[in-house]
Amino acid sequence: MWTYHPDLLATPVPRYTSYPTAAEFGEGVGSAEMAAALERVEPDTEVSLYLHIPFCREICWYCGCNTGAANRAARLDAYLARLSEEIDGVARRLAGRGKVGRIAFGGGSPNAIAPHAFLQLAEQAKAAFGATAPVLSVEVDPRGFDGAWAEAMAKAGVSRASLGVQTFDAGLQAAIGRVQPREDIAATVGLLRGAGVESINFDLMYGLPGQTDDALAASIAESVAMGADRLAVFGYAHVPHLIPRQRRIDAGALPDAAARFGQAALAHDALTGAGYDPIGFDHFARPGDAIAVAAREGRLRRNFQGFTEDEAEVLIGLGASAISEFPDLLVQNEKNAGRWHMAVSSGRLAAARGVRRSSDDQWRAAVIEELLCQGQADLAGISGRAAIALRLARFAALNLVRWEGSVLLLAPEALPYARVIASAVDQYRGAAPTRFSSAV
Ligand code: SF4
Q: Which CATH class is domain 12-318?
């Protein structure tokens, strides 16, 4: 059972899907650094690809993603044609170096594009990068998902899918601008299973306007009954000053911090009680799922897509705003669609901003990742350990962390505070705290 310590959650912290975080990205890093990083990829370097489809059938009010409405066919077609050029352009630079083991389609909603267009992109990416049998994953919006899409996924060999569910409660769905009847979600799961998708993730949310504990518990029970292999349970972050579309959400109906903490704890108890393994601080998986196996074997990782069993050291992001990750570099493509089109059409890499990772950054990145994924990390290689221990003294006094020499260990009850604890290792915090959300 978790104990609520509001003072420990008072400061917003990053989600640490990278370190340094995107808040540290600057203009001084771009296509030249990306080109040099691609040059350094060795023939046997493990590489994963991420293809960004920034379109959705309907835009949900809570969404902070870089996505737009898929209502203009010409705009969609132009984007896909350019993405196809970018795939070939980046593959040419790699010239056969790197072993691509995974290709992920995200967005936005990949199924906002036509199924044949998806299949064409998947086949092109496999051929261009010489990926013979990659693990293919796709983010799916149940709204509008159909048999033709499932067929395309089966042909492409997709084995992982992640569904944006958020809540099964019709009233809450209306309150967040994402109406999708239970029957549509069930039909999507049926189609995905029929297409041979082995692992299905449901994204759920707590902390929604007007959401009660009972409503959250009902959504979790429904997800378990539908056979979700994985669940990611996120707290809704209301930041309308950063995401203007959230202004449509009734801020007065949002659960307060204590209620949010209670809902995060409820989700954890309900899912572990239903036989799911906790993965990191907000994911859950059936014990036989690949991510649960990776977690048990100490191979769990964290990247831009959240907790993952993907162990590749290089992630190449393709599409407007997509982020690439190399051991010594984080770099993001142009967010502005027009500038992204121009860069790719002129044969340039579209990378526009990012951050070089110093060896100290890389040490800290590894420690933060281990704390979040394994619940412990050896800080022997990090300077300023005494200052970190001082920052964590209040957590130690509450038995949420303890030290064994230079190894920092989190207690199981420290899970809701994991991001805050990890932030003690972060060199950059304090610069822009309002860009982040509460850890719970
Ligand atoms: S479907 Fe997903 S990406 Fe698209 S608007 Fe809704 S939450 Fe955002």
A: alpha beta
Q: Which residues line ligand 1 (CB under 6 A)?
A: 56, 59-60, 63, 65, 67, 107-109, 141, 164, 178
Kindly report the CATH number that applies to the domain delimited by 1-11+358-440: 1.10.10.920
- Most informative mutation of 109, 113, 180, 236 for ligand 1 (most atoms within 8 A of CB): 109
Q: pLDDT digits over 14-66, tens only?
A: 999 999 999 999 999 999 999 999 999 999 999 999 999 999 999 999 999 88
Secondary structure (H, E, C), the chain: CCCCCHHHHCCCECCCCCCCCHHHCECCCCHHHHHHHHHCCCCCCEEEEEEEECEECCCCCCCCCCCEECCCHHHHHHHHHHHHHHHHHHHHHHCCCCEEEEEEEEECCHHHCCHHHHHHHHHHHHHHCCCCCCEEEEEECCCCCCHHHHHHHHHHCEEEEEEEEECCCHHHHHHCCCCCCHHHHHHHHHHHHHCCCCEEEEEEEECCCCCCHHHHHHHHHHHHHCCCCEEEEEECCCCCCCCHHHHHCCHHHCCCHHHHHHHHHHHHHHHHHCCCEEECCCEEECCCCHHHHHHHCCCCEEECCEEECCCCCEEEEECCCCEEEECCEEEEECCCHHHHHHHHHCCCCCEEEEEECCHHHHHHHHHHHHHHHHCEEECCCCCCHHHHHHHCHHHHHCCCEEEECCEEEECHHHHHHHHHHHHHHCCCCCCCHHHCECCC
